[in-house]
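Reviewer 2 asked us to include a model.

Predict the structure of this chain.
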Amino acid sequence: MYSEWASLSAQITANSCGAQCFSVLNKFPASAGREVVVSVVKQLGTNLGITQNAEPSHLVKDEEVKWCMDVICFGLSLPLQEHETIKDCVNVYCEWLTALHPQPRISVPKPICEDANLYARQIINHFHNLFVPRQGEILPFLYQTTLGADTIKRQAVLCHRVLRTLQQTAQISQQMDRQTWDTLLLFLLAINEILLAPPTVKDDVGDQLCERVLSVLFEVWLLACVRSFPSPSMWKTLQESCSMWRHRVALVDQWNRVNLALTSRLLEFSYGPAFPQLKNADEDGQLIPLGMSNDCVAQTWYRFLRMIGNPTALCSPHIISKSSHFVQWALTHEKGAETHQHPCLQMLPQIFLNAMKGISSQVDAFLALPLTSMGAGVELAVARPKCNSILHVFHEWLFEAAHIGGDTWRQNRKKQACEASKRPSSMIMEHRKGSISLSQPNSLNDPASLPPTLTIDKYESGRAEAIGTLCKIFCAKKTGEEILPVYLARFYMALQQCLKITESKECDETLASILLHSGDLFRLDLDGINVLLPGFIAALEIVLPDKDLKLKTQSMAFNRTELRRSAINILLSIMVLPLHYQSLPIRDLSSETNEKMFTFIQLKSRLMNILMNALQVETDAQNTHMLLGGLLLCVQDAVTFEETDLGGGGSGSGATHLHNSGGAQHQHQHHEANLLSSGCSERSASLVSTGTASLGAQTTATMGAGSGSIRDTASAHDYPSLTISDDMSFEFGQELEGVTTYDNAHALFVRATYLVCHRLISSWKTDLNVSLAALELLSGLARLHIRETDTLVKIYEASQNLTIISSDALECKRAVKWICDYICYQCSRPPPAHSKDLHSTIVAAFQCTAAWLMQHPYLLQDKDCLQTVLEVVELGISGTKSQSKSGDIPKFKDEKELKPASMRVRDAAENLLTIILEQVGYFPSECGPESISSLLDELALMKHCNSMVPAAAASTEQAIAKFKYFVTENSTILALLEEPLGNDQDPQPTVTLLIRGPFGRHAWTMQLRHLPRSKSGIKYHAVNPGRPIPMNDISQRPECEQKNFPDGVDKVQPCVADYSIPTIEQIREQYGSASIRELELILENQSIHEKLAWAEADNSVDSLSHSQECVPPLVCQEFHAARLFLSHFGFLTFETRNPHNPAESLGTPPQRPLIVLDTKSTAFAADLDRLDKLSARTHDTVYVFYVKTGQTSAQQIIGNMVEEPSLTYDPHFAGMLQTLGWPVLVADHSGWTGFAHNSWSLKGTPEEQHQQQQQLQLKSNVPSELNYNGSQRVLYWADVSSEIAFVVPTTWNLRYNSDISDGASIANSDQIGSSNVWARCESDTGTGPAKSKPRNLSLELETATGTGAGTGRTQKEPVPPTRRKGNVTKPTLLAQAPAKIFLVWLESYEDYLNFPLEDLLAYTRTGEELHSLQQPRAADCHVIFVHSLLSGLLRVKLQGPPGRMSFATPLVDGMVLSRRVVGNLVRQTALNISRRRRLDNDNYQPPHVRRRLKVQDIVQKYKMDLSEAELLAHLFQRAI
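Predicted model (structure tokens):
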């Protein structure tokens, strides 16, 4: 840089050596000179104002001043014992230097004030005498041989005084000329040379003053850059001098300090105020003078950066010790020694590390990284410089430092030594300011002569810092940024050298530094980065599977948890590579041949081993969370790969199986291998059967697809074995022995299920986040349909006519058993352990169990599994099991106390029970997955009723009037229609029911039949059956006298009782004959009427005398079917009051089985509609956005969805949308649409829908494949317990939301509020809060009669568990806003930093926000960013509110996905995020609880208080 400029080193040496020759007193004896100095200086010192008031100087002429200065110059060179005299000399000169100040002291002579610069230069030159060694003394400043420590300390005080004075003068002087500045700088260089160039000796003056003289030199030099920029010769001299001081620790420390201060100023004007400011210490922030211009800062920064030369020279003691001072030490050493063996050089490894840390700090500043940042996940500045720019500055030093101690470095050293050996064997001492290049050959570079503390491995810390800095630079690559191939090549070579594993297989500092700073390396589209894949996998095999990782460190400290987290980040970014690239080869950088060449698919098994072993030993919650997400990604990717890429490849026969290891077909015969555990595939099963199954064994498999195949032999690398954790049982370990390879999805599925279930019970049950992540993973595994299972052996039970899939059923049954055991353990924990978090895990476990049973309904055919699940349901609902042990006598329901763990646990158990009874094996129903309720309501049923006029069927109120409404169990509304529907031609007692309960609306039609349909199908419908043929053979009956009494009755002696009935005569006598005659008259009249009636009948046409044929009666068409139904189903069995029970004899009557509702109210229909609008499932909405490169405003992002020819989209974006859900038309969709007003409603006629679609189609200008804004189409997905809609907002959403907000009124507030999943209290009337309040405070066992909350409790009920109060003061408002989930496709990854989240909230309203206590905030939103890499893979970035339960699995921040699984995993993550948010919400109510409360609200508003007689009378009244 300064090669063409002359150095001023000779001038510095001359000034130092000739300083004592300046004074004329040197011509006289020392004693005479001393006497002159003492007398003169003492007199001058009295006028300075130190001990008395200052007086004007008597020196008025130049000659007088010069004579005194000669005396003072000699005084400064006196022996150190003359401390007081030297002190007076220093004081005089320091006072006289104030002549350069704006206000000189009064004691300064007038000639000095008139020509301050001239005299100041002489004074500065005279100050050399204070620092140079005295004549006759051997470096007295530096060695404590003849001087005491007290003398040196006093001398150091004087040096500090001089340095402070010179620094202060340079700062405040406004009249220093360039010559004075040069003199000052040369003086500072000279004293630094005197103090710092000799080898370091502890506690000498050089050691004490080292930092001080360096800081003064650098700070004054920075001042000179502003006032009088140093010449190139001066800069060259500074660089050469610093190269001689590199054995001093303080030099590199001060160099780093100045560099960071300059870098901070450089960033301010280079990248603007928006660039993150580099935060330095307060004193360091004042290093840079205020007046320094931007150009001056840049020039100074670069020159200071290059000031100490190449830092890698610090790794060569021979170069550092190549100075005359070290040679002098070596020549005077008692036993003889080499220069590089001086003890002070043992600090070189630490100095090298400090230099590398300084460079790393500057790189961090350019990348806007905090100085304390460790590992991945740190936000980088968007405006950061390109990687090439940073590498242009630092690449030479960093690349050389990264190779220190590596194979390349050793080869270069051997080459240099060989070249040096060819030279003449003469030692030529170079100039003291020689070259400092590392590549310079040196005949003394013999590693064998180095002391043990200076061997090359001692520089490992600095090397680790350098390679870590390189990793940070390359990880800062932006989307689309190009890095020069030469930099990439050198970086890959350096990484390959540093990733080499030692024989001891320890994690050294270099390896740890690489892993710590390379989290993003494989997700940046770096060209050729995959060549490092084998090396990184080998490194991960050392770090992740080791439970007690041993770090081989020297000077650097690593957090093991952070190290493992960064390693997991790398693992998550490479998990999908084997199945993505499959048989593509990976070349070895260090070998020209292809002997060590791997294919990607060969690495799959090693990656799976790393993942499983890491999950087995991981103890940190966040790391475990990340590993669980990666595990589900692997299994999902393998399953989808087999379904898509390999689907249909097999022949379908039992002897042919298709494996995913390269896509080849393996031929196997049917033998005992099929009976092995399904945990291993056929390949691993055959290995187990032959006894050669070990991870180190060499196995073969055919690789390739279609044409050609590559023979795969296991590499020489020893794969780590599956380590069994200490907390894992021996039996469990035995089961895993066969699971040694992961060549198919089924093996992964089984191994993942085993491991996660076991660790969930043994290790993770006390951690909320890990438990939730494990249960989420198990739920995800339950939804997978493994291709391999259709070829596994089946067992047929002929006796029971059952087919049991042995392998899959056993695995799934075991998983369900484990989850149930987990629930039992959590519920059985002692009361102090029961908390909100514990109950959240139990609720999540119930949801997980439901997922397994829904996806594997055959499990309920297993008696043991069914009993296990139902016992857990019973435990959740009641708090105890009927049978604690298998041999105990069961305790019946009415004998148990209801003490569930909590209200939430009971609700979750009820939900699972309903799913088992209603949905398992039947979902989706005929209505499709969009509804678990019937799509029929009163209006729809009446349209099919015979008695209903079509024109009148348009009114819901009229349709409701045809029904009778009853409520049973205070939670279920029964709507009964007694008229048969129009399609029923069979006149039977028929009743049509609409059952509205907590879990939905269901429609049933029932008929009363005396015979089953199979036996009552043939009927005789003849009009006249005909007269039967008369029978002529009538037998004669014998005539006999009829006797009314037995024959011997007259012989019986009468008794008093026989006379108790009076005779007619006695009556006549008693009551008179008038009464008897009246009675006789009545009898006579009756006889006459009967005779007339018989005569009239004989004369009629219908009389028997006219021989009328008999005909069957008409079929009855009208029945009181409702009464029959209620009676047959036990709803009319009224309980009687027990007078011996005080609880029943007093107070309100017992609970009635039936409550009648008054349907005459006009609001009844509206309340029923609101109940129907309450979905029995949770519902969520995900908003999808597409962000083009550089877009930062909401209008630009929304505008991407407008159909214009100029707009182009990533083709994978539309593909991802199609995998998120099913496209549905809002007009005929009966599920959640993303908007509260039109969800869960029965749609109109097809003609009306067609007209609506046409109108919306005319208004829409969105591309058809992206038009899912909710106006006419939306993406929808649902399972038995949740619904989710994916909306792609456009400008229509903003207009629509504005209309919704303007038109909102109190009338529809209940409809909107009640449809929200976050509502806690559900009522709009005054009685509603009173009814729902006990649910917030305690567990409602629902034994109330309906007259008031809690009034019907009996003494048998236990004291329910209490909970914190919910939001009971404002029941109509939502306690918490719904979670907003965004899915954002980024063309440029860095745009996530400027995503306008706040502005886009206006486009994402569902109608539920109008009545919430808290409006949705940007800080509460969850954002899933997806960025498409050039490789075709997708990078994920998660952003959300901080909290314990913010992020859910399976997606993990930084994960790299395959396109074939992105839709599934995004959907699962969105659902899990919402579930976690609900679990964390104290005021959340499950959907079935909200529906139950709404039913209770309807009961309170419309119930009819009827007695038993009035109720029965009501049943006989016909509906309108």
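The mean pLDDT is 76. The longest helix spans residues 1073-1099. We have added this to the supplementary material.
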